UniProtKB/TrEMBL annotation:
The chain crosses the membrane at residues 21-39, 91-109, 116-135, 166-190, 202-223, 268-285, 292-315, 321-341, 348-369. Keywords: Membrane, Transmembrane, Transmembrane helix. It comes from the Bacteria. This is Glycosyltransferase RgtA/B/C/D-like domain-containing protein.
């Protein structure tokens, strides 16, 4: 099927096809991400861990025994970012994460436009913008925006005949999510086979690229984890300890993933995606069209099954893990609705097609309005979280400073605040604990029960935090 999806791959004897411009696009995304720092800009739980690990690698003191699963790609950025200090490093990572999310919108538009024109591109990008939790996730520093961007970009580079670029972008995606590994492995084998067929001999450069990429993938996933925790598979073990509200604890986790993820997109998006699939399947059977849409639908389906299967096996199954298949559906939705309107115009005329387009827009409007309201709520939640995590330095200062707070013993905080406290207190993640026993200091959110623990009398308060110390009780 792949031979029908793009021009022949480049070889040593032929110039690569002219690819779509990307440098100015990436710079523009970075610029917009930089401007976004004018809004609340504080990482959430997982990104704090990547930022901490970057600092620890820079100091040759990596510890990954606690916290979320190891993820290589973010740490490639956060290690040099750590040189920017306590305030600069988190902001630099947020710029990268947000630029990835913005690039995902751009790539959704470009792929949708490629499939069915600019209107399809606008539907694709708009659907992704309105997808539940997508903006909220990458705005707080999660990596799903980057994942979607590099995967959609990889598809575009493949279609442009720049398949080595596509492979490298796929490797970047594989450094973010393990369910991408089988796809990049198969694509690497395809590259070798295609070049071998074109040259009638083993393509040495391509083989080195694929094997070297695979080795790098394994090293970056497993070696740092072993050096930091003593366990090559610590990340997998951690991923099988999900939060209490995880789909993994449902009676039927596999089915529960699909139940929960249904709300990520609205019915008009799913219907548009289904229309695109049905039209492409009919055209493929009739041999009138290539299989690009079918391939994208197949990839999205396999990814969903992979996430659901991993959840059935005990992994977390968080909704953000289905961002990539959801993005593929958004792209297909744009193509599906445009196909329907064009088909109507071809059969019944422009007036009928215009009436249909207006009817589709009117039927979709309530869903769009609801999603816009959800974006407003997401913005409020982003601000509330930023207000909490972003005021940790204020709490440390109010408590007498880092040295004083460490002098009493272990530092304790709430379950989801351990990373932020560890970062600003210059601790390993494992040294910022949640089960409090004297002696020690508590840096606890004012809404938590830990902030009222009588074993740690209050020594300072801020707008969001209560600082307690067992040493104060001993005096």
């Amino acid at each position: 099927m792949l031979e029908r999806l793009a021009p022949p791959p480049e070889t040593a004897d032929m110039a690569p096809a002219r690819a779509r411009p990307w440098r100015l696009l990436v710079l523009g995304c970075l610029a917009l991400a930089g401007l976004s720092l004018l809004w609340p800009s504080v990482p959430t739980y997982d990104p704090w861990a990547w930022i901490i690990w970057g600092r620890e690698i820079a100091h040759l003191d990596l510890v990954t025994k606690t916290g979320p699963s190891w993820k290589p790609l973010p740490v490639i950025f956060t290690t040099p970012f750590s040189l920017a200090g306590d305030d600069g490093a988190p902001l630099l990572w947020l710029v990268v994460a947000r630029a990835g999310g913005i690039l995902a919108f751009a790539m959704a538009f470009r792929l949708g436009k490629r499939l069915a024109g600019p209107v399809a591109g606008l539907i694709a990008a708009g659907s992704l913008i309105l997808a539940d939790e997508f903006i909220r996730n990458f705005f707080r520093g999660n990596s799903e925006g980057i994942l979607v961007a590099v995967c959609l970009w990889a598809i575009e580079r493949h279609l442009d005949g720049r398949r080595r670029d596509a492979f490298l972008l796929g490797l970047a995606a594989a450094l973010l999510r393990p369910e991408v590994w089988p796809f990049i492995a198969l694509y690497g084998l395809y590259l070798i086979a295609a070049d071998w067929h074109a040259k009638n001999r083993l393509p040495v450069k391509t083989t080195i690229l694929v094997i070297g990429g695979g080795l790098a993938l394994g090293i970056l996933w497993f070696v740092p984890e072993y050096l930091g925790s003593g366990d090559f598979l610590r990340a997998a073990a951690r991923a099988r300890k999900p939060n209490p509200d995880s789909a993994a604890f449902a009676a039927h986790p596999f089915i529960e993933v699909f139940n929960r993820s249904a709300s990520v997109l609205t019915p008009p998006v799913y219907i548009g995606g289904l229309l695109a699939f049905c039209a492409a399947l009919y055209a493929f059977i009739k041999r009138r069209e290539d299989g690009l849409i079918l391939a994208m639908a197949a990839i999205g389906t396999v990814l969903m099954i992979a996430v659901a299967g991993m959840t059935q096996a005990g992994f977390a199954g968080n909704l953000r893990y289905i961002a990539l298949p959801a993005a593929l559906v958004c792209v297909l939705a744009g193509a599906g609705w445009v196909w329907l309107v064009r088909s109507t115009a071809a059969r019944w005329g422009v007036i009928a097609a215009s009436a249909l387009a207006l009817a589709i827009a009117a039927a979709s409007a309530p869903f769009v309005i609801e999603d816009i309201n959800e974006l407003d709520l997401a913005g409020q939640r982003i601000k509330a979280e930023a207000d909490l995590y972003g005021t940790v330095p204020e709490a440390i200062k109010a408590g007498g400073g880092e040295a004083k707070l460490k002098s009493c013993g272990t530092v304790y905080t709430g379950a989801f605040q351990t990373q932020a406290v560890a970062w600003y207190m210059h601790l390993h993640e494992m040294d910022s604990e949640i089960f409090a026993f004297p002696p020690g200091t508590t840096i606890a959110p004012s809404f938590s029960s830990l902030s009222r623990d009588p074993r740690f009398p209050t020594i300072a308060k801020t707008r969001k935090w209560v600082i307690g110390s067992s040493c104060a009780a001993a005096k």
